[in-house]
Every structure is written in structure tokens, then in C-alpha cells.
Amino acid sequence: MDTGEKLFEAAKETLKTRYPDGAGGAAAVYTESGAVFTSVAPGVVNSATELCIETGAILEAHKYNTAVTHSLCLVRENGALKILTPCGVCQERLLYWGRDVLAAVTSNEEQPIVFKTLRELQPDHWSYAYSDDEFFA
């Protein structure tokens, strides 16, 4: 099983466990240490305090001081599973580990899992105003 399949299955299992019916979402990240962390978005009363589905898994990687190499966000709507490209905020969170972090991009059950680097997703990112040595120091 390759990394994409491993992350898809981990996110799918978390999704089934946390949201057995109806809509829901789960994310999984793979790290340089070989760990897989999963997360869901917390339920909140005030929508201004919402967090992305990937946030918990990203924080786990920080907690264990291991770099994220791959990220995948999976949602279920009307029974169909879809991979979502990380939003701009999550792309910024993933950029902590460099421009070559691989993020799964939007697809559906019939398409293979496709990853793109943050470099590909953000060709005109604001950080290019700085050298890599300055930015990632």
C-alpha cells in the first residue's frame, strides 16, 4: 500500500468512526518518521472558532516534532467520498515543513489519489520574496 492509499484508508476509518452516518470529514498526515496522524474538525457553537479538518493532525506532528511529508483531507457528502485540496490556511500551516510537502488535491472515488507539492499549489506564494535561507531559517 503506497502513502496515498495509506492516508486515504486512515482518513476513511476515522471518518467512519467519528461520523458513521451522513456528512463528515477526516484528515490524515504522513510524517518523516513514518507516523500517520488523523483528525476531524471540532464541533463548535460559534462558527468564528471553527478549525479545518487537518489542523489536529498537523498539531500532532508538531507535538511529536516530526515533519509532515503528505497531507490528505477526505469528506463525505451525500454518501460520496471526496478528497479536498487544503485551503489556503492549511497550505500556510503545511508550509512550515517546506515547499515540497505533498498535499492530496481534489478528486473523487473514481479518480486516483493525486498529490501536488505546495510549490506547485503556490507558484506565486508571497514567501518567494525571501530566499529559502531567510524564510525557513
TrEMBL record:
Protein name as it appears in the record: Cytidine deaminase
UniProt-listed InterPro entries: Cytidine_deaminase-like
Domain of life: Bacteria
GO MF terms, alphabetically ordered: catalytic activity
Spans traversing the lipid bilayer: none
Organism of origin: Salisediminibacterium halotolerans
Gene3D superfamilies xref list: Cytidine Deaminase, domain 2
